[in-house]
């Protein structure tokens, strides 16, 4: 294997110092690869090389690269993402079909467990009525309703999503009302309001995922074709329109791109907006802090963190001050929510019979021990990741630590809704650009959707028993843990890292890219590796 020239950048010299002979024989690098050259996956990925044979095979040695007037890797990736999103819409469209009831009224056809049998379920459809978005004059966090009215379990409810996601739903509902009014006048095609709402929402979610894919390609820099992994991900085929998570992935991915372009304030603005849509973009500040401390770039982290906090407060404070009860609903529900069927705690509880995670909950009860255990495990994982960030022989890449933190949150959290796996896709593509491995994991994760749907269908309706579903969950969790182990292995043995093999330090690192270390933990393993 030809390692990058030690004279190219400090990271290449560090990699050369800590590489063992075994490492140097592990990953082939094309002899034609030069500093600054775009990396073609047909030359570095055997899986892609084999898949390219029907269209002419791997890139030729004398091929003209980057000269086509229109088709660039970004445009090809976005076209493939558009096709994947279209297929996802067709998969969900079965759940917005309608039928005429005995009274001659058009109704949504969810008869005979259709969402589960057709595996087309999407939260967007039931939330349209559940969150009172179909009613005129409502506003998220102000409008309330009573669940289980007339029973001992009755309790007051509000919009359950973070502010930006809640407002997104409300705007889509208003666009739906406008569309229905115009269609009633004969100027637009008509459909059930909930179907119109789903289509409008799906359009904007698709735009958000296209932004995510675009940002991944730009952040990957010399590896723009890696964005195809995000574009055609099996998880996108299944979950792009399951919930509203592509909004958060778009903000998180563009926030990382802004950081890579050395714009820390803009990165903070985008991460703050992402945290106002879903909480997980806030976790990316942790890896940034570790790496900035190690490189002596704390002031850049402070700008990003400050902008994140200011933007999050700017979005949340107006609602928190004027509609406090509704604003607190998201935090209350997450505190009182029990373990999700997809969580490792439910797996342990089911297969061991142990009810130590607070057991069945009544409305208003808080699973105290479950919250303590899940929170403590996540903090322990974060502490371990921070140690890795400080003790690794070469400073880890930003995407590597970000992937580890988000994966740790999902594995240790009491809730792992299926669409949460989308959070990992952009980070995994940037952290572990191994095509066959990532496509295999994403396919496995996406396939969990089938047993989940048939588990919800119920055994009485020829569905799957819970142990079958949970067995798939265990395999999914083990696959994610395996990816984390691989990332840690590449952190400690950077000569196995495909990104650094090409001579780059950290394409997503921004001010961290190529920066020397100022502070690091000199562990025994680190000292032996450097010798």
TrEMBL record:
GO terms of molecular function: hexosyltransferase activity
Q: What is the recorded name of this protein?
A: DUF2029 domain-containing protein
* InterPro entries in the record: GT87 (IPR018584), UCP010361 (IPR016570)
> What keywords appear on the UniProt entry?
Cell membrane, Membrane, Transferase, Transmembrane, Transmembrane helix
Q: Does the keyword Lipoprotein apply?
A: no
Pfam families tied to this protein: GT87 (PF09594)
Any Gene Ontology CC annotation: plasma membrane
**Membrane topology type, per the record?**
Multi-pass membrane protein
* Annotated localization: Cell membrane
Q: What is its main location?
A: membrane
Which residue ranges does the record annotate as region Disordered? 1-36
Q: Which residues cross the membrane?
A: 194-216, 228-259, 265-293, 300-323, 368-392, 437-456, 468-488
The answer to whether keyword Iron-sulfur applies is: no
| Record-stated family | Belongs to the glycosyltransferase 87 family.
Query: According to the lineage, what is the superkingdom?
Result: Bacteria
């Amino acid at each position: 294997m030809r390692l990058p020239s030690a004279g190219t950048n400090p990271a290449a010299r560090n990699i050369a110092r800590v590489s063992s002979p075994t490492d140097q024989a592990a990953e082939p690098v094309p002899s034609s690869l030069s500093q600054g050259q775009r990396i073609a996956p047909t030359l570095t990925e055997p899986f892609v090389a084999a898949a390219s044979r029907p269209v002419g095979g791997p890139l030729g040695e004398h091929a003209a690269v980057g000269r086509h007037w229109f088709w660039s890797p970004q445009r090809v990736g976005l076209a493939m993402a558009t096709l994947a999103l279209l297929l996802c819409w067709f998969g969900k469209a079965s759940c917005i079909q309608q039928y005429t009831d005995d009274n001659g009224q058009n109704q949504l056809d969810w008869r005979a467990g259709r969402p589960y049998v057709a595996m087309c379920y999407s939260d967007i459809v039931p939330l349209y009525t559940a969150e009172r978005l179909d009613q005129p004059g409502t506003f998220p966090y102000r409008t309330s309703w009573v669940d289980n009215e007339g029973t001992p379990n009755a309790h007051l409810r509000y919009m359950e999503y973070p502010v930006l996601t809640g407002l997104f739903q409300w705007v889509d509902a208003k666009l739906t009302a406008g569309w229905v009014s115009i269609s009633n006048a004969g100027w637009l095609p008509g459909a059930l309001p909930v179907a119109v709402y789903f289509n409008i929402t799906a359009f904007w979610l698709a735009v958000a995922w296209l932004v995510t894919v675009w940002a991944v390609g730009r952040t990957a820099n010399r590896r723009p074709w890696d964005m195809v992994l995000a574009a055609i991900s099996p998880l996108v085929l299944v979950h792009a329109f399951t919930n509203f998570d592509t909004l958060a992935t778009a903000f998180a991915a563009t926030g990382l791109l802004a950081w890579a372009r050395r714009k820390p304030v803009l990165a903070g603005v985008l991460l703050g907006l992402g945290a106002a849509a879903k909480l997980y973009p806030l976790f990316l500040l942790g890896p940034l802090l570790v790496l900035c401390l190690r490189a002596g770039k704390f002031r850049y982290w402070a700008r990003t963190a400050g902008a994140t906090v200011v933007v999050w407060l700017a979005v949340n404070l107006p609602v928190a001050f004027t509609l406090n009860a509704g604003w607190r609903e998201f935090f209350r529900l997450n505190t009182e929510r029990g373990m999700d069927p997809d969580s490792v705690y439910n797996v342990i509880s089911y297969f061991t019979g142990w009810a130590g995670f607070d057991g069945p909950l009544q409305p208003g009860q808080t699973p105290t021990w479950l919250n303590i255990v899940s929170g403590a495990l996540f903090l322990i994982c974060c502490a371990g990741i921070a140690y890795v960030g400080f003790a690794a022989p070469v400073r880890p890449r930003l995407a590597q630590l970000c992937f580890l933190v988000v994966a740790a949150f999902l594995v240790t959290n009491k809730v792992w809704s299926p669409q949460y796996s989308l959070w990992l896709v952009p980070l995994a593509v940037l952290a572990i650009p191994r095509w066959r491995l990532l496509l295999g994991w994403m396919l496995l994760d996406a396939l969990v959707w089938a047993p989940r749907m048939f588990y919800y269908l119920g055994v009485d309706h020829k569905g799957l028993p819970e142990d079958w579903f949970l067995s798939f969950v265990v395999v999914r969790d083990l696959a994610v843990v395996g990816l984390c182990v691989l990332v840690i292995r590449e952190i400690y043995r950077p000569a196995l890292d495909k990104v650094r093999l090409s001579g780059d330090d950290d394409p997503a690192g921004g001010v961290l890219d190529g920066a020397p270390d100022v502070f690091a933990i000199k562990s025994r393993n680190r000292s032996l590796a450097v010798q």
